[in-house]
Design goal:
Number of strands: 13
CATH architecture of the largest domain: 3-Layer(aba) Sandwich
Number of domains: 2
CATH superfamily of the largest domain: Response regulator
Strand content: 15-25%
Distance between the termini: 50 Å
Number of helices: 10
Helix content: 25-40%
CATH class of the largest domain: Alpha Beta
Radius of gyration: 20 Å
Structural class: alpha/beta
Strand order of the largest sheet: 7-6-8-9-10-11-12-13
Order of helices and strands: EHEHEHEEHEHEHEHEEHHHEEE
């Protein structure tokens, strides 16, 4: 192995999902900080900011591989960016380490998925919502692969179970004119709303729905909740104050998780950067992913992707989001399910959890699963 192993970090810190990219960037930085604080050496991170420009992701990945010798790249937020980068990573037989919740139906030998797929977030979320609120949801989505596929799957699951989709609408990534959507929801009166919007569109929608709820209590969160699989702590300050309180999100990590490991993790983050008051799932997942990448490189004595793929599938890897068990058949990690309710303090209260669920990206039913019932904690 070369004296210093270089790991590329590829995010966008500006644009409609810039808050997520900034937290991914910070989580990666903290992983390196923690490594060095423990006496680790021989690893360097090389950052590239794509500024939400899709072609720039490809340029950035090419530069990280060609100019900096990075055989491992951690990053991308959106599925569009991930799919843009994968062919180049395949060409050079590198590894892309992806750590954002995504729509599934993908398994690539050149991608390590430390990211939730639908059987780890959407299906447990629906398991929670339908018995409590009914089976007549309204589906919202960003007008790209995440929104399309998540809503397609939700539609299929709900209708096969005898439910009815009352409406389905899509908005461009930065569209904030949500009046027609709100009017349609007010007329159709769904059981709950599955929100697969991202960034400003999601923020504008939540604020508008709160105003609707103030006039018609049927649309308050306790009666018609909005549920997401991609809204994290780092975005809550961008939403109109109080507008999102009471709404739900399913993620593998929340800042409020009360475990010894998470308390120790938060204390180290606070000592590093006291201004970070809430740690997001994106920050924690980026931290866990970079930490896993470094540990695998050091454990097998090489940054060679073939050696690393074999090494990470050999045993569980402790992390802040639980033990990471990588399935060698799919390159996906088992992940816990937590359901959070947004509180007035800019964070989430965890209201239900499941232990780590083995990933089943193609929903074949062939992967082992956790116990079928949610553990309600509040």
């Amino acid at each position: 192995m070369q004296t210093t192993a270089k790991i590329g970090v590829l995010y966008s810190t500006t644009g409609p999902y810039g808050a997520l990219g900034r937290d991914g960037w910070a989580g990666a930085e903290f992983a390196l900080h923690d490594w060095r604080a423990a006496g680790g050496e021989g690893v360097e991170l090389v950052f590239f900011d794509a500024h939400a420009d899709l072609p720039a992701y490809l340029d950035g990945a090419r530069g990280l591989i060609r100019d900096h010798g990075c055989r491992n790249i951690v990053g991308t937020i959106t599925s569009s960016a991930r799919k843009e980068v994968i062919p180049l990573v395949e060409k050079h037989d590198g590894l892309l380490w992806y750590m954002c919740p995504y729509e599934g139906f993908e398994a690539n030998e050149n991608v390590i998925y430390v990211a939730g797929c639908p059987n780890q977030h959407l299906i447990p979320l629906l398991d929670h919502l339908v018995p409590r609120h009914g089976n007549r949801p309204y589906l919202l989505g960003a007008n790209y692969v995440w929104g399309w596929e998540m809503n397609r799957l939700a539609r299929e699951l709900i209708t096969k179970a005898g439910g009815q989709i009352l409406g389905e609408r899509y908005l461009p990534l930065e569209e904030t004119a949500v009046e027609r959507v709100i009017a349609d929801i007010a007329e159709k009166r769904p059981s709950f709303i599955l929100n697969n919007l991202i960034g400003p569109s999601s923020y504008a929608f939540l604020a508008a729905l709160r105003r609707l709820g103030e006039h018609d209590p049927a649309f308050l969160p306790e009666n018609c909740p909005v549920a997401s699989c991609d809204l994290t702590e780092c975005e809550l300050s961008d939403i109109e104050r109080g507008a999102a309180v009471g709404q739900l999100c399913a993620l593998p990590y929340f800042d409020s998780l009360d475990t010894a490991g998470n308390r120790a993790f938060k204390a180290r983050v606070e000592a590093w950067r006291p201004e970070i008051t809430h740690i997001s799932s994106i920050f924690a997942s980026a931290y866990a992913t970079v930490t896993l990448c470094i540990a695998a490189i050091k454990s097998c004595g090489s940054d060679d992707p073939v050696a690393i793929r074999k090494e990470i599938a050999s045993r569980p890897w402790p992390s802040v989001i639980g033990d990471l068990v990588i399935d060698p058949a799919t390159n996906h990690s088992a992940l816990p399910f937590h359901l959070g309710r947004i509180n007035a303090d800019g964070g989430f209260d965890v209201i239900a959890s499941r232990p780590a669920i083995a990933a089943d990206p193609y929903l074949t039913g062939e992967r082992p699963r956790s116990a079928p019932s949610l553990r309600v904690v509040s």
